[in-house]
């Protein structure tokens, strides 16, 4: 009888617990959905209230999903107030919490948000990296609805980087994933956005005859004007723009622009209004109707300021400066220059802030892992000493032996962790070198090119010639600073390409051992060092050693990787000759990885260079003999 009563009590308790759990999950999901709706409705006060409720519920339940959502909603608040650096920070925190609880979908979605922020800040490389990382989480779970968004963003980034073929490829992947998603309103909206983006891709290349069919294809979508007025206005506006740029159907173009204007006024789409007024200003300016062009430029400027639409803001200021004269024109032009400089500085600040946030959070995560490992080891030692007191001398001797092994393991593990941290620092510096090289190439060299043209037009030919030499020095410096990546082109192919670039009938290069190893198991920092070492040696042989043959030997051992380079050049006296800047830089890179550099050479007998890099951080000293 007692057993029967116990079973009944247990059943009732289980039922009540199950019911309570269902009620909690329902409450949590409702709260999360209300936060998302508040964001899409741009209701910031409501979003703040929901965020506080999520935080309160988390403190009562310790549900990590709620903690991730709390940071997510904090990011959304900053999105609505256009404080993108803070939004990036909170997205990052939310993503890291979701990683810990293995919520791949949430991690992928947060990475998508990070990628969009980076693209908007013109951090196109960062956006591409975040997007590719998101694919690693979303592809295994076949989340097609977000995969299409990731590929769409990669298409936009590739277009900004002028990689037209890649952009088109990504857009087609986005359409493929769109076809695999279930038929929903979101699927249709995303489809229309992708079709519009493909049209814009061709429009940006001034291939309007190819762009127009995509805009028309979107406009032919079932009941688009009724169901999806925002997308309808976007496609109609871009169709009109292509026809205008082709010089076709001016009357029809104006009708379409005016229809778009009415729709955006009705929808209170302030950002869209800045765009349509810009297009109308261009339209009337093309017809030399200055008054109307001036009116729409001012309207575009007003809405661009309200929505922080920096691109349209600059366009409006430039248009007004062209439509006005005298002091008024100079005033708008100065405002344009000041804003452009300010935006450039802000974009650079955001890029640096984004990189700093990623670096610091990743660093903190690694430090937490190390601390956790050390804490576990300390706990193991405490337990070990307690056991030691309860056993005899024989057990104590065995315990001491085990302790010795554990200490050895601890130091080996610690050394490996420190080496990994060292590799991480090198990767950060390589990234910084890339960014500096990109800035020198894209920004400084570009500005010098413009100034060079102005000097030539002003007949200051001597000054222009000197500036051209400076520009070439800047370009050369950017190439020297630029790094090498093995993500798209493997290490083997990079070495083969390097050899092919320098190989000539009277300058032969032979490579041994390259095909004998699986280089994907070797850290990228080590492979980068091997590549740079081979490149520096080939350049020295060709430039200074007057060699006709070079032999490059690769070998990978259990604890280290070895690179040997032998040439039949004129050689040199190692006791007299000093290392050049390239060789000094190479030696510094080798020292960063605790490697050894040995150079043996005699006058008239060629040179042999040996480089040995540890795979797990064994400290050595470099030699030069």
Protein model, in words:
Helices cover 76% and strands 6% of the residues. By secondary structure, the protein is mainly alpha-helical. Among the domains are: 19-81; 352-481; 491-614, Heat Shock Protein 90. A 5-stranded mixed sheet has the order 1-2-3-5-4, with helices on one face. Strand 1 (508-512), helix 21 (524-545) and strand 2 (549-556) form a beta-alpha-beta unit. Helix 4 (84-100) packs parallel to helix 17 (326-390). The protein is globular and about 90 Å long.
Note poorly predicted spans.
Answer: 618-625
Tally of separate helices? 22
| Beta-strand content | 5-15%
Which series of helices and strands comes N to C? Answer: HHHHHHHHHHHHHHHHHHHHEHEEHEE
| Alpha carbon gap, first and last residue | 93 Å
Highlighted features:
625 residues, mainly alpha, Heat Shock Protein 90, five-stranded mixed β-sheet, 22 helices, globular
Concise synopsis of the structure shown:
With 625 residues, the chain is mainly α. The protein has helices at 2-40, 44-61, 64-80, 84-100, 104-120, 124-138, 144-160, 164-180, 185-204, 208-219, 224-227, 229-246, 250-267, 270-286, 290-307, 310-323, 326-390, 393-457, 461-481, 491-502, 524-545, 581-592, and strands at residues 508-512, 549-556, 560-567, 596-601, 607-614.
Give the topology:
Blueprint: H1 2-40, H2 44-61, H3 64-80, H4 84-100, H5 104-120, H6 124-138, H7 144-160, H8 164-180, H9 185-204, H10 208-219, H11 224-227, H12 229-246, H13 250-267, H14 270-286, H15 290-307, H16 310-323, H17 326-390, H18 393-457, H19 461-481, H20 491-502, E1 508-512, H21 524-545, E2 549-556, E3 560-567, H22 581-592, E4 596-601, E5 607-614
Parallel strand pairs: 1-2
Antiparallel strand pairs: 2-3, 3-5, 4-5
Helix pairs in contact: 1-2, 1-3, 2-3, 3-4, 4-5, 4-17, 5-6, 5-7, 6-7, 7-8, 7-9, 8-9, 9-10, 9-12, 10-12, 12-13, 12-14, 13-14, 14-15, 14-16, 15-16, 16-17, 17-18, 18-19, 20-21, 21-22
């Amino acid at each position: 009888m007692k057993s029967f009563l116990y079973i009944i009590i247990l059943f009732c308790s289980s039922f009540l617990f199950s019911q309570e759990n269902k009620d909690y999950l329902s409450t949590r999901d409702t709260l999360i959905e209300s936060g998302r709706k508040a964001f899409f409705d741009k209701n910031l006060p409501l979003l703040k209230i929901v965020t506080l409720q999520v935080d309160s519920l988390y403190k009562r339940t310790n549900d990590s999903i709620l903690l991730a959502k709390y940071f997510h909603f904090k990011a959304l608040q900053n999105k609505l107030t256009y404080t993108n650096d803070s939004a990036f920070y909170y997205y990052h925190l939310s993503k890291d919490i979701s990683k810990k609880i293995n919520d791949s979908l949430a991690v992928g979605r947060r990475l998508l948000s990070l990628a969009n922020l980076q693209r908007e800040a013109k951090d196109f490389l960062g956006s591409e990296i975040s997007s590719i990382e998101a694919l690693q989480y979303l592809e295994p779970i076949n989340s097609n609805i977000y995969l299409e968004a990731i590929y769409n963003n990669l298409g936009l980034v590739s277009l900004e980087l002028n990689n037209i073929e890649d952009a088109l490829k990504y857009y087609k992947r986005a359409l493929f994933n769109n076809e695999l998603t279930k038929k929903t309103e979101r699927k249709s909206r995303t489809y229309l956005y992708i079709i519009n983006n493909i049209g814009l891709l061709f429009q940006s290349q001034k291939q309007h005859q190819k762009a127009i069919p995509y805009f028309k294809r979107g406009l032919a979508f079932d009941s688009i004007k009724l169901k999806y007025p925002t997308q309808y206005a976007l496609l109609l506006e871009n169709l009109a723009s292509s026809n205008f740029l082709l010089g076709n159907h001016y009357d029809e173009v104006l009708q379409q622009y005016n229809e778009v204007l009415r729709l955006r006024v009705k929808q209170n789409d302030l950002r869209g209004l800045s765009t349509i007024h810009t297009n109308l200003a261009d339209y009337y300016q093309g017809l030399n109707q200055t008054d109307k062009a001036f009116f729409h430029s001012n309207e575009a400027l007003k809405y661009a300021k309200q929505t922080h639409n920096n691109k349209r803001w600059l366009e409006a200021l430039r248009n007004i400066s062209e439509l006005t004269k005298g002091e008024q024109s100079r005033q708008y032009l100065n405002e344009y220059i000041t804003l452009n400089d300010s935006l450039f500085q802000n974009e650079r600040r955001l890029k640096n802030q984004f990189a700093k946030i990623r670096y610091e959070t990743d660093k903190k995560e690694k430090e937490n892992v190390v601390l956790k490992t050390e804490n576990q080891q300390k706990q193991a030692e405490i337990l070990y000493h307690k056991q030691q007191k309860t056993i005899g001398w024989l057990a104590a001797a065995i315990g001491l032996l085990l302790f010795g092994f554990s200490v050895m393991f601890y130091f080996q593990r610690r050394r490996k962790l420190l080496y990994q941290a060292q590799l991480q620092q090198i990767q950060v510096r390589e990234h910084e070198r890339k960014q500096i090289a990109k800035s020198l190439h894209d920004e400084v060299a570009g500005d010098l090119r413009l100034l060079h043209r102005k000097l030539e037009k002003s007949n200051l030919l001597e000054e222009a010639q000197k500036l051209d030499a400076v520009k070439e020095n800047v370009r050369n410096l950017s190439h020297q600073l630029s790094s090498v990546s093995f993500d798209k082109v493997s290490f083997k192919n990079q070495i083969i390409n390097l050899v092919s670039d320098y190989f000539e009938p009277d300058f032969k290069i032979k490579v041994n051992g390259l095909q004998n190893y699986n280089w994907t198991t070797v850290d990228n920092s080590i492979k980068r060092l091997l590549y740079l070492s081979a490149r520096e040696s080939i350049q020295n042989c060709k430039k200074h050693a007057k060699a006709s043959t070079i032999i490059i030997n690769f070998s990978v051992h259990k604890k280290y990787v070895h690179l040997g380079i032998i040439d039949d050049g004129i050689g040199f006296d190692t006791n007299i000759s000093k290392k050049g800047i390239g060789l000094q830089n190479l030696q510094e890179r080798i020292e960063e990885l605790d490697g050894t550099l040995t150079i043996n050479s005699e006058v008239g007998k060629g040179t042999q260079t040996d480089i040995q890099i540890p795979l797990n951080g064994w400290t050595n000293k470099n030699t030069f003999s």
